[in-house]
Design a protein that fits this description.
It is built from 19 helices and 18 strands. It is α/β, with parallel strands linked by helices and about 650 residues long. Strand 9 and strand 10 form a beta hairpin. Helix 2 packs parallel to helix 9, helix 2 crosses helix 15 and helix 18 crosses helix 19.
């Protein structure tokens, strides 16, 4: 048997599964390799002949499944049907409203350069506003290359005072807490929480305010997920403080991503059926093999069974982070209708509940939906005409908010807010057709059980007007100007009981695999499935689950690479060490400068802060810190360094 056929083919790569090396029997590239070599199209065989695809959920995962079924699987669009309980595509990627009633976006999305699945898909989707032949990726690059993102007021306190956020503010012991977490095995972190591991001082540092507000982590949530996030965004860590590591879209997430992708799929014949809530899947089981034979759904309020042929494939979303959203406005607080420990049979969690009742291979959904007090937060969308609020915003922004360029550069977080409140203004207009004199702001908070600093109520009990008053308080807008602000501002609220449910503490087996063991024609997608090393709560991770499902069910010899390999890049590790050390040289860094300062590899080192000190003097200073003032030890190591440098010079001459 040849090496090529004897080695099992794995669609989902896992870099941490073992050591990889070049050898004759290893025809596949490095597990986390990205680039043009991974853009291969599997040669079309009979993998889609006579088959149909049913996709449950029209969020980014469901739309991505349709995209990859067509582009890489060769399936015809007319053989793909997307089912959705709502009457609009996009799932949690929403954006709606008008200037008269107010706009609303329940949440936002931050991107970085290595969302490789996202860009893989959107480089093949026609741009929203550029001419034919230009992609969403082309449009995104054109915008962000010309208008780089950064923030000048990332953290604030004391009613409008910008807090120094130039460093993470971690003590040496706190730095080691973070480093030790990076070194821990994933298998050792089941069901542990962030506050189980980190010290109280760490959870009050600049780092934690920057981190938790950017990613929406709560102290009582999964330490494992935080570890995965640390690896995933290690290359971005030196841009967390001023948010220069991020790239943002021109418009809201629905107009930017969902609209062009849906247009692309519909042109190819994909059908979308709305008002269809799927509650269960009929299955047959034989010798450990499970096959979906029917989809049970409520269609326009009537119970239906959609037959599924044995050759057909089904893609289903498990759980929903925006299910059960309660809405409020300027004069009304949201009214929660979901139970605190069970969402009920008419929710988007019902399908996963019913699957889990069939077998443990489908995971344990209750771990995620079972305590909304720990997974809930609220957001508000502000539709603003000129007022003292927009004037204050202008003072805190990188560019004129009405210029179409970067405004706040991401969220501004109030570190002394009892709610841990944040506010942001993205590029304007944020909606297609938005009037030129209107700005759309977004505000959210993490803690739902604390009274506000200005308004003595928890955020969920507040009207839009009261939340606006709390925001103005933290921005330092005087009380006598509040009525002028309220007269020119509309607030629409969204209280989401499950918005961070994917971060709840979990253990092995709580989340099902994309293709659960023994399933012949079912793939699960979204934020509540298990992948090798990826995180949750990103568009990229949702798309990854769809790709894994498509390639696996269709039997395609095409792999989905592991997360971007930048976490192993020596440049990433060095700059991360410097950043975690409050932008000061980390232990050993001056020695590296002495060793590499005049070699080919000098460029991997951050500049030393004291330019007046020679690298030799800096290295000797650092050695003294390590070894004390003992002349013999210092001379010995100094001589070794000199010999290494001379050897490197000699090698470069050859």
């Amino acid at each position: 048997m040849s090496p090529k056929t004897s080695k099992p083919f794995h669609v989902e790569n896992d870099t941490t599964a073992g050591y990889w090396s070049n050898r004759p029997e290893n025809t596949l590239p490095v597990p986390d390799m990205m680039g043009a070599y991974m853009r291969n199209h599997p040669y079309p065989g009979n993998q889609v002949e006579g088959r149909k695809a049913w996709i449950i959920g029209s969020g980014i995962a469901g739309l991505a499944a349709a995209f990859y079924l067509i582009r890489d699987g060769g399936m015809k669009g007319q053989d793909i049907t997307i089912l959705d309980a709502l009457d609009v595509t996009g799932g949690s990627l929403d954006g709606a409203g008008n200037p008269e009633d107010g706009y609303i976006i329940r949440g936002g999305r931050e991107m970085n350069f290595n969302y490789d699945n996202l860009w893989d898909m959107f480089q093949d989707v026609q741009a929203l506003e550029l001419p034919e032949g230009y992609s969403v990726l082309d449009e995104y690059r054109q915008l962000n290359d010309a208008d780089p993102n950064w923030s000048k007021s990332r953290l604030m306190h004391n009613q409008g005072e910008i807090r120094d956020f130039s460093t993470f503010g971690l003590t040496k012991p706190q730095q080691w807490e973070l480093i030790r977490l990076l070194l821990k095995r994933k298998e050792d972190l089941d069901d542990l929480t962030i506050e189980d591991y980190f010290s109280p001082g760490f959870l009050q540092s600049n780092f934690w305010f920057l981190w938790r507000s950017m990613f929406a982590f709560e102290n009582w949530q999964s330490l494992l997920e935080m570890k995965l996030y640390t690896h995933r965004f290690l290359d971005s860590i030196d841009g967390f403080a001023d948010m220069s590591c991020l790239v943002f879209p021109k418009y809201n997430q629905h107009d930017t991503f969902v609209k062009p992708l849906v247009d692309h799929l519909k042109k190819l014949g994909v059908q979308v059926q709305f008002a269809t809530r799927v509650s269960d899947l009929e299955m047959t089981e034989d010798a450990g093999k499970r096959s979906v034979t029917g989809i049970l759904a409520s269609v326009n309020g009537q119970e239906h069974r959609i037959p599924v042929d044995e050759k057909d494939v089904v893609f289903a979303l498990t759980g929903s982070m925006t299910e059960g959203t309660a809405y409020g406005d300027m004069d009304h607080a949201p009214v929660m209708e979901r139970g605190r420990s069970d969402p009920g049979p008419d929710s988007d969690w019902a399908l996963w509940q019913n699957l889990a009742a069939k077998s443990p291979i489908f995971g344990n959904p209750k771990k995620f939906y079972g305590d909304i007090d720990k997974s809930m937060w609220e957001s508000g969308t502000l539709t603003c005409k000129p007022s003292p609020l927009t004037d204050r915003l202008t003072e805190l922004s990188v560019n004129d908010p009405y210029s179409g360029k970067t405004v706040t550069g991401g969220i501004i977080t109030f570190t002394d807010s009892n709610w841990v409140m944040s506010v942001t203004c993205n590029r304007q207009p944020h909606f297609l057709g938005q009037p030129k004199d209107v700005l759309v702001l977004w505000v959210y908070a993490l803690l739902m059980d604390k009274d506000g600093n200005k308004v003595k109520k928890p955020m969920p009990a507040c009207t839009g007007r009261e939340i606006l008053a709390e925001l103005c308080h933290h921005l330092g807008i005087p009380d006598d100007q509040f009525e002028a602000v309220a007269a020119k501002t509309k607030v629409r609220l969204a209280l989401m009981p499950y918005i961070t449910s994917m971060f709840m503490p979990r253990a092995k087996g709580d989340r099902p695999h994309v293709v659960p063991e023994g399933c012949t024609n079912l793939a699960l997608m979204g934020q509540f499935v298990e992948t090798a090393n990826d995180i949750v709560f990103t568009m990229d991770s949702s798309i990854r689950t769809a790709r894994i499902g498509v390639y696996t069910l269709l039997g395609l010899r095409k792999q989905v690479p592991d997360i971007s390999p930048v976490q192993y890049d020596i440049r990433t590790l060095i700059k991360a060490a410097r950043t975690v050390n409050n932008n000061q040289p980390f232990p050993g860094e001056r020695l590296l400068h002495r060793l590499l300062g005049k070699t080919y590899y000098a460029h991997i080192l951050p500049p030393l802060p004291d330019r007046t000190q020679t690298t030799r003097d800096a290295a000797e200073t650092e050695l003294k810190a390590f070894l004390g003032t003992g002349g013999t030890a210092l001379a010995a190591v100094g001589g070794w360094l000199q010999r290494v440098r001379e050897d490197l010079k000699e090698r470069t001459r050859k």
